[in-house]
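Before anything else, study the sequence and fold tokens given here and see whether the fold suits the sequence. Record follows:
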Amino acid sequence: MTDVATTAPVATKPVRILVAEDSPLNRQVALMQLERLGYAADGVGDGTEALAVLEDRQFDIILMDCQMPEMSGYEATFTIRERERSYAEQGSPAARIYIIAMTANTEADNRSKCMQAGMDDYINKPVELSQLEAAIHRALADRATQKAIEEVIDPIVIARLRQLKMPGKPDPVAELVDMFLKEAPAQLAAMELAVKENDYTSLARAISAATSLKGSSGNLGARNLAALCDEIEQTAKNWTLEEVLPLVDRARQELGRVQVALGKVKQG
């Protein structure tokens, strides 16, 4: 039976938290701790109930007990991640829920198992207030970082690339990011040099470099950079190389943002 018990309305921080814990006492303690920290939260008794609640409501963070009846925290987390991947494939990516495992710190519950299930963090029970506060702060920092990345890199493209991973082979995203980070600066430099030299080969060289960088940017979801490269390409085709240089400067600035974002994507 779902026990969606919301803490008192004194909580003011705009973060939506769900506590999935089969022990009513432990669940209430967690809700009270969150209230003490200024967060409103709801509680459910197992993984099945958590999934049901997520069908109707959005949450930023889940405190997920690993060992629960009906459906464990591991199973629930795996299902949540599969849902997120499915939404991304359909072109409707949902914000990734940050899941914090709550474990009894036994051999059956360990950090490696939690991470393999798709959880983001790990705290031991009984949960101490300071431990919980630190975990929430890490979650919020992670979400802020993810939002900044998604302003530069299309998450749908990255999700599709991750599906190319084959058992026993390297992460394709990391490999493609490394290739891009090696090639992109040279392509941009070639564009800039062609425009500055402005000789009889400059037009073709500028268009070629812009087309190449547009394609590689698009393949890694760097949509803003790809759009700038397209603008450079079209401007050059109109024989207006003098108007290309400011666009190249903008592309260089955007490439800097892309390099930072892709570095974080690779780490994830």
Observations:
- Residues 4-10 have pLDDT under 50 and may be disordered.
- Residues 115 and 254 are 33 Å apart (CA to CA).
